[in-house]
Design goal:
Rossmann fold; alpha/beta; two-stranded antiparallel ribbon; ATPase family protein associated with various cellular activities (AAA); P-loop_NTPase; single chain; 9 helices; 5-stranded parallel sheet; 7 strands
C-alpha cells in the first residue's frame, strides 16, 4: 500500500473513534516509526531507527493523538494477540481498592494462558497520583515499571507508554532510576511541543 493511502485510511479509522482526529503532514515520520515497530520488519525498523527488542514510549502534548494511534495500531493484530491498553488513572484506582496486589497484576502476574508475557500500553502516564494504602504511600506506576523492567531484562516482557510528560518531568515524578530504565525499555517517539490539539 502506498504511504499516502495508508495515512488516509488511518485517519478515516481514527475519525470513527474521535470525529476531530486528523493526521497532519508533520505527523507522517512519527506514524512511520510506529508502523515500523508494529510491522515487525527488521529492515523497515532499521530505516526508521526503531529497535524491535524494545517497546514504544509515545510522548507529546495533550490532544496530539497518542492514545488514538495506539488503539489503531493495536488493531493490526488478531484479537488474541492484541496488547492491552490501561489508563494509568484506572490503575491508581485499582490500587486504592486492591492494594499492592496491583503491582504483581501488571508485572509478575502478567502472563497469558500460554505463559507469554502480556504486553501492556500504560496510557497517560503522569495522570495518576502517589497513593496511600492503609497509610503507606506508593508510587504505583514507578513500582510497576521497575518490576516490568526486571521482567524485560530476564523474560523480554514488552511495555508501551503514552504520556504528556517530557524526560525531566518523568524523572521528577518517578525518579532517576525509572528514567534510566525507560531508556533501556523503550523507543522514544515524540510529537513536537507545538503539535495542535486535534480534538478541537
Amino acid at each position: 500500500m502506498h504511504t499516502t493511502q495508508f495515512f488516509s485510511q488511518l485517519e478515516a479509522m481514527g475519525r470513527k473513534r474521535s470525529p476531530a482526529f486528523r493526521i497532519l503532514p508533520a505527523d507522517h515520520h512519527i506514524i512511520l516509526r510506529l508502523l515500523a515497530w508494529f510491522l515487525n520488519d527488521p529492515a523497515f525498523a532499521q530505516k526508521h531507527d526503531i529497535d524491535l527488542r524494545k517497546g514504544i514510549l509515545l510522548t507529546g502534548p495533550v490532544g496530539c493523538g497518542k492514545t488514538t494511534l495506539m488503539h489503531l495500531f493495536r488493531l493490526m493484530y488478531k484479537p488474541q494477540d492484541q496488547f492491552i491498553i490501561r489508563p494509568c488513572r484506572d490503575i491508581s484506582f485499582e490500587f486504592i481498592r486492591d492494594g499492592y496486589a496491583v503491582i504483581a497484576r501488571y508485572s509478575s502476574g502478567a502472563y497469558d494462558r500460554n505463559n507469554r508475557p502480556k504486553i501492556y500500553c500504560f496510557d497517560d502516564l503522569g495522570t495518576e497520583s502517589a497513593l496511600k494504602f492503609f497509610g503507606n504511600e506508593c508510587n504505583v506506576m514507578a513500582e510497576i515499571l521497575q518490576s516490568r523492567y526486571d521482567l524485560f531484562i530476564h523474560n523480554h516482557m514488552l511495555t508501551h507508554i503514552t504520556t504528556n510528560l517530557n524526560s525531566e518531568e518523568i524523572e521528577t515524578l518517578y525518579g532517576t532510576r525509572v528514567r534510566s530504565r525507560l531508556r533501556e525499555m523503550f523507543n522514544l517517539i515524540t510529537f513536537p511541543p507545538d503539535t495542535p490539539d486535534k480534538r478541537t
